[in-house]
Amino acid sequence: MPIIIRRGTETDARAAADLWLRARKAAIEFIPPPVHGDDQVRAWFASHVVPNAELWVAEAPPGMLVGILVVEGLWLEQLYVEPTMTGRGIGASLLTVAKRERPSGLKLWTFVSNAGAQRFYERHGFVETRRTDRDNEEGAPDILYGWADTAARP
């Protein structure tokens, strides 16, 4: 199935938020549950993500979102794939876009409990730079990763 990756727009905010919610809920055994309700997440995508960050969407014809990427500055803030579509290279394709858009480097956080994400990012050249103990809104231990020049900076 061909995947198209494009910049997200205002009209994608709801579908992107819903994909984020499905992906987070499907990963509940690996990561903490979201601390915000569904409507709060949808409002955050519409009021913050779309106007203030770069939303990229992976779309499978005919117009179904199968992945999202949110980049803000040097931060890869969100990377999620439709739970029924994992393992097909969608996440890797979105990560390639992030690297292309930020060739000088990227940073991201992942939960210590999410070993799959750690393997994914390390396989794509990210390096662990620091760990924290519950220094996020979920109150869960996490790992800071860097890629390219940012791997040398905390």
Word description of this protein:
The protein is α+β, with helices and mostly antiparallel strands and 154 residues long. It has a single domain, classed as Gcn5-related N-acetyltransferase (GNAT) (Aminopeptidase, 3-Layer(aba) Sandwich). The protein is built from four helices and seven strands; from the N terminus they run E-H-H-E-E-E-H-E-H-E-E. It has helices at 13-26, 38-52, 90-101, 115-123, and strands at 4-7, 54-60, 64-72, 75-81, 105-111, 127-132, 142-148. A four-stranded antiparallel sheet has the order 1-2-3-4, with helices on both faces. Strands 5-7-6 form a three-stranded antiparallel sheet, covered by helices on one side. Helix 1 crosses helix 2 (38-52). The longest helix has 15 residues, at 38-52.
Q: Would you identify the regions where 5 or more consecutive residues have pLDDT less than 50?
A: none
What share of residues are in beta strands? 25-35%
* Number of separate domains: 1
- Numbering strands along the chain, what is their spatial order in the largest sheet? 1-2-3-4
Radius of gyration: 15 Å
Remind me, CATH topology? Aminopeptidase
Structural class of the helix and strand makeup?
alpha+beta
The secondary-structure element order is EHHEEEHEHEE
* Outline type: globular
Tally the beta strands. 7
How many helical elements?
4
Please give a handful of descriptors for the protein shown:
154 residues; four-stranded antiparallel beta sheet; alpha+beta; 31% strand; 32% helix; 7 strands
Question: Quick summary of this structure?
Answer:
The chain is an alpha+beta fold and 154 residues long. The chain has a single domain, classed as 3-Layer(aba) Sandwich (Aminopeptidase).
